């Protein structure tokens, strides 16, 4: 009797265990020639909808490849990817971010080198400019294909500027013009004269415009030695806050996404952010007219740069790199993709697609295309010397920036404190 | 069960026959018993093996592994390298944010836990007096705790205390000055403390059960002796409730130190790190800065802190906890 019970238990247990393992192996091998790829991206709801539609198109064209999408907002995306990387379980196709993220993944050898696929023509990037392709290179390996081109842009609310009688800025405006315009709008309308600049991308631009970099070439130190630079950046913003021209962080923190920005509600005329957010901003702004131009500064040609909006990467642990490369090729070369997605992932990198699209672009996309054209002519190459710890350095910069803007540190103390923090992070 | 019976049934028969036989039987049974009980254990372990496997592979192993990781520079992506006590040394000597988060967490736990306990006790006392529809009230008051740990409540909280939120609207409508509750480093932590206090449901239920256990005769007897309700509370209710208070305090202190969701969702640690709870900082270390070794070390430091607090509360309990089963 006992033996029977024992036997039953063992049977049940082994059935349980094998049931667990069965499901995984089934998903992996699949029957027939059908290949299943996992794909992840971050974005807004509209991007989720569009991308799923793009996947559907792709599956129609390649019936033997199935794509399982996983998507979230940007918050939490890289945390989730980090956990998957630790479990050796990165998706086959991964939306990757330029800069500190790409460098981090490159450093750990988590991404597959795509140059083979480009050479044998699986991924067709014929005619894409070298500078664009280079942004996906790290240590001589091609680790990502840019989804499109992006640039920082000074968005302005023309309706509000007109109301205040302030001239619309053009690409030759300086920091003084910016401050004057902001003050005038504030005086005339009682609204904010600008949105507070957040340091994550904008301090780097500020440095570049003055001829410096955020990090030195080998990523072991900050790229500038004179703390007056950061002090000047802090002072510029702090004075605007103190005069009531720019909102403090207490207001900024309440903004719930791009669609809720001050510029959208006509509460502030200026906002500096990425050009691919034009669609989201414009559609949320409704009646009000938004425009975009280069960021201010007399040397803004030196400060401005083109950046890959995102990159498509294939993970090194993928068992179906070939199929994943087919998807990237599809995304890069198929006009349907851009008819569905517009410039949401940046302006297409292929000349043919751009010209094919330009015939029936909507007004906003046209503006973005023109703007990227303008930046292409008035920019310098992007810096890619981000050390692996740069996420933490940038977090320290935001922290110090908050302290200064809340008035708990003077700009001078803040600049000094940031250097100390950055050095201790980089020195580890 | 069944085999036991069948083996035992012949025994009484032999028992009746002769004495030496019985002795022999007893002697021979002894070793057999041993074998039998071993087998029983195996069956038992097999029955709970789903739990055991889960417990060892999903709880014990990660705990021990994190202890190992706390001595390494593991960055989630590469292989861990042994660096000895470096993480701990760095934590205590070279990381001001660590101390900041420690301060925030102690303040949070130190203020929010008593608030929740007092609140839970008061509501339980009130509910204990309610005669009709107790179930309804109990459910309604317990609701915040069911949904409490969830993202939804935290998002609601953010809306309530936002610049254009309900709290400011109410203040404005009665002519009081409004305030940027979440934007001001001095008030942001209080919104989280209020949120914690508001989720008093589970402690309340336990208090309520404790209150129901106090025999009514004590109150009747004391009222005959002329004790008013306040006196009754202090000489009868509170002493008899101390075991429940002890339990609730320990559970809440542990929960308070481990709070994560509110600061992650409502304020995301800001402004200027004024709501950076310890666990949120640990999460950032691990998953934003890829500093898993350091985060593991932080987790172990927190474990020690919670263990110390729990030990202090336990050690002090003989002085204030009153068990009915003891002499008085």
Average pLDDT confidence of chain B is 84
Largest sheet of chain B: none
Radius of gyration of chain A: 24 Å
CATH architecture name of the largest domain in chain B = Orthogonal Bundle
How many domains of chain A, as an integer?
2
- SSE topology string of chain B: HHHHHHHHHHHHHHHH
The percentage of residues in β strands of chain A lies in: 5-15%
Structural class of chain B: mainly alpha
CATH superfamily of the largest domain in chain A: Periplasmic binding protein-like II
Q: What is the overall silhouette of chain A? A: globular
- Name the quaternary structure: heterodimer
**Strand numbers in spatial order across the main sheet of chain A:** 2-1-3-11-6
Helix residue percentage of chain B: over 70%
| Fourth CATH level, the homologous superfamily of the largest domain in chain B | MetI-like
Distance between the termini of chain B: 43 Å
Helix content of chain A: 40-55%
The CATH class designation of the largest domain in chain B is: Mainly Alpha
């Amino acid at each position: 009797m006992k033996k029977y019970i024992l036997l039953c238990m063992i049977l049940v247990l082994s059935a349980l265990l094998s049931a667990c393992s069965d499901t995984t192996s089934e998903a992996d091998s699949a029957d027939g020639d059908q290949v299943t790829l996992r794909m992840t991206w971050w974005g807004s709801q509209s991007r989720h909808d569009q991308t799923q539609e793009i996947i559907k198109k792709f599956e129609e064209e390649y019936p033997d490849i199935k794509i399982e999408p996983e998507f979230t907002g940007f918050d939490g995306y890289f945390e989730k990817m980090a956990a998957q990387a630790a479990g050796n379980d990165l998706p086959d196709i991964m939306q990757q971010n330029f800069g500190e993220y790409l460098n981090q993944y490159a450093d750990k050898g988590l991404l597959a080198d795509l140059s083979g696929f480009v050479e044998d023509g699986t991924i067709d990037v014929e005619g894409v400019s070298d500078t664009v392709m280079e942004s996906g290179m790290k240590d001589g390996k091609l680790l990502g294909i840019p989804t499109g081109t992006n640039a920082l842009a000074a968005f302005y609310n023309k309706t509000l500027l007109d109301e205040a009688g302030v001239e619309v800025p053009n690409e030759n405006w300086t920091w003084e013009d910016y401050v004057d315009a902001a003050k005038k709008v504030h005086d005339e309308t009682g609204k904010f004269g600008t949105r507070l600049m957040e340091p994550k991308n904008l301090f780097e631009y500020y440095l570049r415009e003055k001829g410096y970099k955020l990090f030195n070439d080998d990523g072991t130190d900050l790229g500038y030695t004179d703390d007056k630079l950061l002090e000047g950046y802090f002072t510029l913003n702090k004075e605007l806050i103190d005069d009531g021209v720019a909102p403090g962080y207490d207001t900024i923190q309440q903004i719930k996404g791009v669609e809720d920005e001050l510029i959208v509600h006509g509460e502030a005329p200026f906002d500096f952010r990425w050009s691919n957010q034009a669609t989201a901003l414009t559609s949320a702004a409704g009646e009000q007219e938004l425009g975009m131009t280069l960021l201010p500064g007399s040397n803004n040609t030196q400060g401005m740069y083109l950046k890959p909006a995102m990159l498509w990467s294939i993970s090194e642990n993928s068992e179906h790199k070939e199929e994943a490369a087919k998807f990237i090729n599809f995304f890069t070369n198929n006009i349907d993709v851009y008819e569905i997605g517009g410039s949401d992932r940046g302006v297409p990198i292929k000349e043919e697609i751009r010209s094919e699209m330009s015939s029936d672009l909507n007004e906003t996309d046209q503006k973005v295309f023109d703007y990227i054209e303008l930046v292409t002519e008035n920019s310098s190459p992007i810096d890619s010397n981000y050390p692996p710890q740069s996420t933490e350095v940038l977090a320290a910069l935001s922290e110090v920036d908050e302290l200064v803007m809340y008035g708990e540190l003077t700009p001078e103390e803040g600049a000094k404190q940031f250097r100390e923090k950055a050095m201790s992070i980089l020195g580890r | 069960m069944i085999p036991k019976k069948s083996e035992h049934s012949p025994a009484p028969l032999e028992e009746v026959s002769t004495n030496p036989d019985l002795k022999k039987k007893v002697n021979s049974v002894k070793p057999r018993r041993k074998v039998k009980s071993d087998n029983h254990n195996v069956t038992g372990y097999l029955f709970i093996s789903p739990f055991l496997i889960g417990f060892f592979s999903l709880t014990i192993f990660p705990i021990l592994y994190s202890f190992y990781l706390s001595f390494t520079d593991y960055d989630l992506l590469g292989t861990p390298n042994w660096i000895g006590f470096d993480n701990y040394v760095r934590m205590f000597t070279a990381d001001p944010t660590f101390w900041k988060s420690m301060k925030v967490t102690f303040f949070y736990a130190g203020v929010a836990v008593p608030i929740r306990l007092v609140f839970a006790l008061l509501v339980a006392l009130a509910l204990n007096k309610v005669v009709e529809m107790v179930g309804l009230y109990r459910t309604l008051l317990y609701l915040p705790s069911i949904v409490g740990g969830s993202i939804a409540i935290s998002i609601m909280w953010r809306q309530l205390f936002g610049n254009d939120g309900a709290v400011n609207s109410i203040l404005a409508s009665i002519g009081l000055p409004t305030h940027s509750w979440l934007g001001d480093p001095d008030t942001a932590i209080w919104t989280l403390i209020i949120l914690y206090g508001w989720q008093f449901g589970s402690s309340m239920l336990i208090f309520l059960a404790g209150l129901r256990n106090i025999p009514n005769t004590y109150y009747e007897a004391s009222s005959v002796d002329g004790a008013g309700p306040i006196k009754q509370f202090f000489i009868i209710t509170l002493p008899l409730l101390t075991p429940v208070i002890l339990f609730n305090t320990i559970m809440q202190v542990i929960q308070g130190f481990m709070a994560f969701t509110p600061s992650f969702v409502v304020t995301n640690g800001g402004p200027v790190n004024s709501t950076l709870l310890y666990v949120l900082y640990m999460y950032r270390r691990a998953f934003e800065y890829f500093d898993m070794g350091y985060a593991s070390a932080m987790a172990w430091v927190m474990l020690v802190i919670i263990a110390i607090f729990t030990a202090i509360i336990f050690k002090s309990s003989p002085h204030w906890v009153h068990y009915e089963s003891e002499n008085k």
